[in-house]
Structures are given as C-alpha cells and as structure tokens.
Amino acid sequence: MRSRCSIWSRPIRTFSPSTWRSSSIATERWWRAATTRRRRGKTSPRSLVSVALAEDQAFGVWQQGGKLYHAVTMPLARDFDLVGYVLVALAIDDALATQLSRIGGADVVYLAAAATGPARAAGTLGPAATQELIAALRKNGEALPRVIGRGETLDRVALTLAQGPAVAALTPLRDAAEQPVGTAVAVTLPGATTSAFDLIRLAQLGAGLAALVLGAILGTLWARRIQAPLRSLAAVAAELARGNYEVEIPRRLSGDHGRIAGGLAALAADLRERRQLEAVIGEVSRTLPEPAPGEASSRPQSQAVALLGLELRRYANPRAGYDAEETLARFGRDLRRVATAVKARKGRIEAVAGHRILAGFAGDGAALGALASAAEAILLLSQRESVFDEPEPPAAAISLGNAVTGSVSWGERPGNAVLGLPAQQLESLLREAAPGDVFLAKPAAEALLPAFRQAGTMPKAQRGVISPMPLYVLSGELAAKVAGVKAPGDGGALDEERLAISDVTAGVLLAGRFEILAELGAGRLAVAFKVRDRERDLLATLKLLRPEVTADPQRLERLTNHMRLLRSLNHAHAVPVYDFGQVGGLPYLLVGYVRGVTLRYVLQQRPQLPVAAGLLLARQIAAGLAAGHALNVLHLDLRPENVLIEGSGLAQVTDFGLAAALIGTMEPGVTARYQAPELLAGQGADARSDVYALGATLYELLAGRPAVEGTTAAEVLEHHRQAVPEPLATLVEGMPLAVDQVVMRCLARSPEQRFASAEEVLAALVELRA
Q1: Which residue ranges in the chain fall short of pLDDT 50?
Q2: Same domain, yes or no, for 674 and 733?
Q3: Across the strands, what pairs with 252?
Q4: Which residues, listed in sequence order, are joined to residue 186 by a DSSP beta bridge?
Q5: How far is CA 741 from CA 304, 619, 699, 746, 767, in A?
Q6: Cα(151)–Cα(173) distance, rounded to whole angstroms?
Q7: How many CA atoms lie within 13 A of 520 on its CB side?
Q8: Is residue 664 part of a domain?
Q9: Residue 627 pLDDT
Q10: Same domain for 720 and 586
Q11: The pLDDT value given to residue 78
C-alpha cells in the first residue's frame, strides 16, 4: 500500500474554489482534475474538503488518474487562523488486493465508477479476467446499479464465468459525502470453499484496513490540532488567575474551543470592569469623613465617675451539654443589650472580663445614669427568649468616686483601664450582690437621694456578709421605678405615644426592639437610622417616615400594600424589605443595611465614571429594577440617591415603591430630571417610566453630567420640555456606539420607543463590553 499527502491552502475569508492555491505540482494537477464532483468519470477531493469545512474532518474514497484512494482530510491552522487543508491518501492498488486475497482466500477486484461504466482500478485478477467479471455482473442486470448507483451491499451474487459458476459479494466504495463511487468485489471461482459471509467480510476488509491506517494518521494530526488551542487557552486562564485581565485571548476558534475562548473573554471583561469599579469606590471611600475614635482609645484623666458592674452569672458555669455556639451567640446578644442601655445614658463600656461587664459614667447625673442602665439591663435580661428558656437576671453593683481612667497598651491593641477606690468597692459589692438586685456603695446612694425622694422610697444601709462596708440594696423593679425606666413592651425609654423623629437619637431603644446605633441620613420622605433589630438579631436600616407624607390614610394604605409585595423581593441588587409598621405614631420601614455610599456621593467625588465601571454598575442597577418589575412593583423614584454601593462594588437599588405609594404628595423638584415625561404630564406610569429613570441615571454616570440640565425645579422642567440630551457617542470619547444606543433608547420621550421593561434593558447591557 502506498500513501500520498498533499496540502491545499486558501485565503481565510473566501471559500471559492477559484481562490485555492496548491503547495505542490501534484496538488494543482489533482485540483484541476476535480473542479466538479465528477468529471470524465473521476471523483473529486472537493467533497472531502466540503465535509471537512462543515465537520472539521472527512474520510472517504476518491479517484485520480484512474486510481482509487482511501483519503482523509482536515483543516490546517497557524496561530488559530485557518490557512488550508491537509489530505492524506492510501492507494487502493494490486498489492492491497493481493494482501486481502491471502487473508480471505478469494479474489478481490476494485471497480471505479466511470462515464463509460465500471473500470478496473486494482485487483488480483488481470485485465482480461476483470473484463469477464464485469460482463458477468452486467448480465446479472441489477447487481452493478444497486451497488454503484444506490449504494447497496450484496452478499451473494451468482455469476457464470468461463471457468464455470462463481459467487461474488459486492460492497460500495463511498466518498466523504456518502455517495458511492465504485465497488469492492470478492469473488470465488469454481472449486473454492469460501462462504458468502467470508466474501462480504473480505469485500469490506479493505475499507476497514484503510480506515485503521488513516485513522492513526488522523488521530495524530487531530490530537495536535486540539492540544495547541487547549495549551493556549490554559495559558490565558493562568494569566487571568494571576490578575492579568488584559491578556490577549485567541480568536477565530470554532466549536468547543471557540466557546471556551468566548467564556474566557467574557470573564476577562467582567474582571476588568469589577477591578475598575472597585478602584473607583476605593478612591471615593478615601474622601469619607474619618470615623469617630473607638471606645478603646480615650484620653487619660482623673475624674469623678460612677462605675456599674454587671455579672451575667448564667455564663459563669455553663451546664454540660450546652451548645457552645448558641451560648456565645446569646452572650453576644446580651452584651449588645447592655451596651445599648449604657450608651443611652452617655456611659461607656470600660471592660468585659468573662461574664462580668464594667461600665463608667461621668458628669452630672452619673449615678442616676448607672442606676437606669442597671435597671434596664435587669429587665431586659430577665425576659424569656423561648418557652423553654430559663432566664437569670444579672447581679448589679454601683460605686462612685474619683478614679483614673483612660487607654493603656500592653499588646497589639489598646484597652481601657479604671484605677482607684471605686473599682475596689465595686469588686466587693459584686461579691455580695444577688441576681436581679442592685447593690449601691454609700457614695452612690448619697448621690441618688433626690431620686429616692422623688420616687417616695429611701433604702436603708446594710452591712455586707463578706465586706464590712455599708451598702444599699434595691430590687430590679425598685431601681427601675427610681430611675424612671419602663419595662420592655411599655415603650422603652421614650414616651412613644407622642414620639417625634427628633426624639430618636443614638442609644435610644424603640419599642423594646430597635437599638438606634446611628443616624444615616435624612431625605424628603424619611429619616434613616442604623439599628440592631433585637427581634431578628441583625443590623438593619430603620426608616421613620415623615408625618407630612403619611398623614393621608389612603396614602398610608397604598404604602402598606406596596410593602407587602416588597417583602417577597429577594435579589442581590435590591435592598430587602423586612418589616413595615408603626412606632409612636410614626410609620417605619425596616430594610437591609448596606455599608457603603450612594451613587450620588460617588458622582459628587468623581462625576464621570470609566465606561467599563459604568457598564458594570448599569447592569446591576438594571437587574435590581427588573427584580421589582417581576413583582409588578414600580420604583418611580430611581436616581443616584437611591442606589447604594458597597466597597466591593456591589450595587443595590433601594426605596422600591416608596415614591410610587406616595406619588402626588410631593411637588416636582430638581429630581424631576429623572422622571419620565409622561409622569410630569400627569399621565399613567408603567415599567417604561422606570426605564426612563434608569436611562437618566446611566447617562449621568457615563457622561459626567445630567441628561436634563438645570439647578432649579423651573429650569429642570423647562429643559425637560425642550432640550434633547446630546448622544453619549459624541459627548464621551471612546464611548461604544452600542452603549450610546441603549442609553438613548431608554431616554426616548415616547414610551413606545423605549425598552418595554428593565429586563429588556438588562438583556441589552449584558451583551455590551467597553
């Protein structure tokens, strides 16, 4: 058997046969002979290449110069660019036929289809005997048309030859397009013992042997072709893992390689966008005000202080079998409750040692602040957390006198220290104190005399069992009465029946549930506070709605219905809504707490964002808006103030439906630049109104200026009616035209010309990269 190899090369962007070039004289001769599938009775390698174009490889029989070949072809690439095809051919010759004849014990003849009829291509029979065989097959009538014409296999055909009766088996020879181009004939002459099964097996053996040889060649070439792109793609993945997001990714790959390359390209683009956005947020975060000094850092001083000691004795000796994780979790909850009570009276936690808490109070009313904190701690920690709970109130002690306080360092982190007689007295009192009671040193009791008189009680001095110093004992209930502390459920420390937003400050406990930690900001509709929700045991944002926007019962009912819908909103890019209710006559909204900045703050520090960072933000905002639309809830107040961004670059849409529920209660202001024209005209609103607001927000963060100019409400409304935003593509250098088209479509004055929903905007943005 002889093999033959040649290569066709062609320009990348054309598949016209006239543009193919030959790398050898033989190839050029073959191609000229094969400009059609069959010309002058010859088959063409073109069918091989056509199949390879569609399926990456091809195998079949083709004819050239009166010879038949088993051939295989596959594409050739250089640096992932298609440059040509390689064709490897195994000749079907007399040597192959002789080898098969020895294996099967029958004569083998290969006939090629030609314009004048079947012609000998190779075989163990000479030309004269082959012509006799062809004549006998023609006399049979149906044999040759069925095999060469229709591609059927005949396992037994009776023939009459000069030597006598004979039996033949015929199997078609097919090209790469599965079209018959000839036949292999295994024939037994008179006296042979070869069975019909052996004949058909022998007729097919030639194709199988050729497939085995060429398969090995093809396998080697194919493995190299697969491994080269995989090695390159693996190198790209390694570069991405090292943080090189600018790595060049191979193009013009097809099939699975192309899909992998496309995925890596999308991943690299996403990582570039995220890195760029994180850089922007990091830069902006440096402009935030410095946080107040922590409690662990205080100036050393000598002053009169009231010290409060609390012993949470339920944690002094945890019972065997207690769940360690749950024990520490509950201890943490109790510590937060104590800290809130202390901070509400302008005290500070000085130390926590084991199950003992030390708090200090200074200035006027220090002793009363310590007593109120002790009473509230006893009341709070005496409540059951479940029907199976066995609460144990803390033991409390208060001392008063001059002490040295301040920060002291002995390791990596500083701590607070309290030195002096009050600390020593407190230690003695706590040895005497019983759970649920408050033990007072004499100086503390004397400082509380006015409060005792006002409460109509006067505790008597007692002598301690362990310490000889005089002490005064108050029950938790009496301490609460003297200090004016209400039991949980009675409104906490504030008279919540006539609560004003101005009454709510850091340290206040609302409804025995919300620990006010800090004020986050005030808007036209509400004032927001960072709180710890004791009921849910989580940090959250409490929004107290202003009375003037909720005075109308219909508006309040509308808002209540909106909040019921929004409680089912669960999306990474939408701030969750936990609860809605009233406290002290003020409607409140409890939502997720986001530690970050608003998009408005970002734009104030850096008015124009890079396109990649802007696109990442745009997709997140659109996704959050789409989540609300999926619940049939409109936002109707989307603007940079209502987009919160964490330090990681995660963006979340907030105040969903708040303006929608209260629409019509506010006069248009400069925020009208984000409102759709139909809203300003008093017409109905739908999802396309939010799409306009989304477009206005995206325009501003990409262009560095609002889509609708104006510094006053009148100017904004005038520009809204007359001005048309300048296209981003002409305003921002390097702005992709596709990005400009998406944003400007969102800003179309007619709702019919906008995207139908935020989901459609998101689908368009997902396909865009800077």
Answers
A1: 1, 3-43, 196, 291-296, 489-496, 665-667
A2: yes
A3: none
A4: 108, 169
A5: 70, 15, 11, 9, 13
A6: 8
A7: 25
A8: yes
A9: 93
A10: no
A11: 58
- CA diameter of the chain: 143
Q: Is 383 a member of any domain?
A: yes
Taking the C-alpha atoms of residue 120 and residue 463, their distance in angstroms, rounded to an integer, is 129
**Helix, strand, or coil (residue 22):** strand
How far is Cα of residue 30 from the mean position of the Cα atoms in its chain? 56
- The amino acid sitting at 296 is A
Structure tokens at 648: 């990681």
pLDDT at residue 10, as a whole number: 39
> Is 579 considered catalytic here?
no
Question: What is the full DSSP assignment across 84-139?
Answer: EEEEEEEEE-HHHHHHHHHHHSSEEEEEE--TTS-EEEEESS-HHHHHHHHHHHHH
What does the block give as tokens for 213? Answer: 């040889």
- 447 and 339 part of one domain: yes
CA atoms of 119 and 581, how far apart (whole Å):
96
Q: Exposed, middle or buried: residue 384 (CB in 10 Å: 0-12, 13-18, 19+)?
A: exposed
Domain limits for position 737: 597-766
Cα–Cα distance for residue pair 211/696, rounded to 1 Å: 65
Query: For residue 522, which amino acid is it?
Result: A
* 710 CB burial (10 A radius; 0-12, 13-18, 19+): middle
Read off the pLDDT of residues 524-547 as tens digits, 9 standing for 90 and up. Answer: 778 899 999 988 888 999 999 887
- Determine the 3-state secondary structure of 514 from DSSP: strand
Contacts of 256 (CB under 8 A, 6+ apart): none
pLDDT of residue 289: 60
Q: Do 469 and 336 belong to one domain?
A: yes
pTM of the model as a whole:
0.52
CATH number, residue 404: 3.30.70.1230
pLDDT at 759: 95
pLDDT at 721: 77
Task: At 387, list the tokens.
Answer: 């029907």
pLDDT at residue number 665: 44
One-character DSSP codes across 672-719: GGGS-HHHHTT----HHHHHHHHHHHHHHHHHSS-SS--SSHHHHHHH
| Given 198, 334, 637, 655, the catalytic residue | 637
CATH value at residue 703: 1.10.510.10
Identify the residue whose tokens are 């947020």.
Answer: 281
d(CA 171, CA 148): 9
SS3 303: strand
CB contact at 8 A, 652 and 624:
yes
Spatial contact of 690 and 636, defined as CB atoms under 8 Å apart: yes
Pairwise CA distance, residues 45 & 609, whole Å:
57
Torsion angle in degrees (nearest 10) through CA of 659, 665, 667, 673: 20
How many CA atoms lie within 13 Å of 643's alpha carbon, on the beta-carbon side? 25
Residue 475 corresponds to which amino acid? S
